[in-house]
TrEMBL record:
GO MF assignments: acyl-CoA dehydrogenase activity; flavin adenine dinucleotide binding
PANTHER family from the UniProt entry: ACYL-COA DEHYDROGENASE (PTHR43884), ACYL-COA DEHYDROGENASE FADE28 (PTHR43884:SF20)
Acyl-CoA dehydrogenase/oxidase N-terminal domain location: 6-118
Record-linked InterPro entries: Acyl-CoA_Oxase/DH_mid-dom_sf (IPR046373), AcylCo_DH-like_C (IPR036250), AcylCo_DH/oxidase_C (IPR009075), AcylCoA_DH/ox_N (IPR013786), AcylCoA_DH/ox_N_sf (IPR037069), AcylCoA_DH/oxidase_NM_dom_sf (IPR009100)
Pfam families per UniProt: Acyl-CoA_dh_1 (PF00441), Acyl-CoA_dh_N (PF02771)
Organism: Paraburkholderia sprentiae WSM5005
Stretches assigned to the Acyl-CoA dehydrogenase/oxidase C-terminal domain: 235-372
Cofactor field: FAD
Official protein name in the record: Acyl-CoA dehydrogenase family protein
Keywords carried by this UniProt record: FAD, Flavoprotein, Oxidoreductase, Plasmid
Family that this chain belongs to: Belongs to the acyl-CoA dehydrogenase family.
Domain of life: Bacteria
Length: 380
């Protein structure tokens, strides 16, 4: 695998990093987090104009058809800014489910709207008590009717659920041998109720109740025969994207901490000259590079055998989560009391890291999955 970026990839990297630096500063992010939706529609439209929402989507639906490397480049830049927009949720997780699903008409209609920034999607999978199970359907069921389906149940922790235009809901298909299916549900449809709340990093999620929601025949995006397979593939891509996002966060914390150590003086010299603090920075650097290596390893295995791909992506997620926790914690420690203030960004990186560590499965979950050879169903 060639680890050197092409000229076009270097331009993408430079453009994404410059956008975050100029348009998504810490003060701007604070204002966005305080808003009603917990993200910016203006930035979402900008992502669409820049082509970031369609990087991996095929050209026949208006995408660019890039490899996952380009997605990783953008996600690393977005991680540096702790962006609040649900890019992974809509443009990668949900878009991949639709792109690889069983509904070609919906694919042709929904994906161009996502790529253009006109449609916000969110996956409603998790249920109370399900922990990290994928394809949850214990509390949500879909009954086949003469005109389509009648769906009812409850979902939890739906990222940006109250702002989404459409929800992809996993539900037990009554009478189907394989059980779970993925359905497209209008968030504003009769019988759909969302209770929104703020997450630790300032973004928002929602609990969704569905009471006898009527769906058309073509609302079934992925049937019971392939639902778990497609959900697993999409969630693995989202997990790897979160690794790239974590990497961007670690790089930002290291840069911030290094600048602070060089600027803060004690005993007549910058504290960055103290050997003990240099050792800590070196350990942070090593942890970050380990995470980067695992990201590259995950990308290299994306087209390999399913079990090996799953095992490597879980390993990457576990290593990156552990490294991110170490780097962010050390960043706070090296800043001293200032690192805990609301007005300084390093503590917000720790909050973001804490939430991301639990998304798509925590460290223990992915380590167990690695030990099982990648066979344990991944979280959603």
């Amino acid at each position: 695998m060639d680890f050197n970026l092409s000229e076009e990839q270097l331009m993408l990297k430079d453009g994404a990093e410059r956008y975050v630096q100029q348009e998504y500063g810490f003060e701007a992010r604070t204002r966005i987090a305080a808003g009603q939706e917990g993200f910016s529609r203006e930035h979402w439209r900008a992502y669409a104009e820049l082509g970031w929402l369609g990087l991996t989507m095929p050209e026949d639906v208006g995408g660019i058809g890039c490899s996952f490397v380009e997605t990783a480049i953008v996600m690393e830049a977005l991680g540096r800014g702790m962006v609040l927009e649900p890019v992974v949720q809509t443009a990668l997780l949900c878009a991949t489910i639709i792109e690889r699903g069983d509904a070609p008409r919906q694919r042709e209609t929904l994906l161009p709207a996502v790529i253009d920034g006109k449609l916000l999607l969110s996956l409603a999978d998790s249920e109370a008590g399900s922990r990290y199970k994928l394809g949850c359907h214990a509390r949500t069921h879909a009954l086949k009717t003469a005109s389509g389906y009648l769906i009812g149940g409850a979902k939890t922790l739906v990222i940006a659920g109250a702002s989404a235009d459409q929800l992809l809901v996993t539900a037990r298909v009554e009478g189907a041998s394989q059980g779970v299916g993925v359905f497209l549900v209008d968030r504003r449809a009769a019988g759909v109720t969302c209770r929104s709340y703020r997450l630790l990093d300032g973004s928002r999620a929602a609990d969704v109740d569905l009471h006898n929601v009527e769906l058309s025949e073509d609302a079934l995006i992925v049937g019971p025969e392939r639902a778990l397979e497609v959900l697993t593939q999409a969630t693995e891509l989202a997990s790897l994207a979160s690794v790239a996002e974590s990497l961007g966060m670690m790089e930002a914390v290291m840069a911030m901490t290094s600048a602070y150590l060089k600027g803060r003086s004690q005993f007549g010299q910058p504290i960055g000259k103290f050997q003990a603090l240099q050792h800590r920075m070196a350990e942070m650097f090593v942890a970050t590079q380990e995470a980067r290596s695992m990201l590259y390893c995950g990308i290299a295995h994306l087209n390999g055998p399913a079990a090996e791909r799953s095992r490597v992506i879980s390993a990457a997620k576990a290593v990156a989560a552990r490294a991110n926790r170490f780097v962010c914690a050390q960043g706070i420690q090296l800043h001293g009391g200032m690192g805990l203030t609301e007005e300084y960004p390093v503590g917000h990186y720790f909050r973001k890291m804490t939430m991301m560590e639990k998304m798509f499965g925590d460290i223990d979950f992915h380590l167990d999955r690695v030990a099982a050879g990648g066979q344990t169903p991944i979280t959603a």
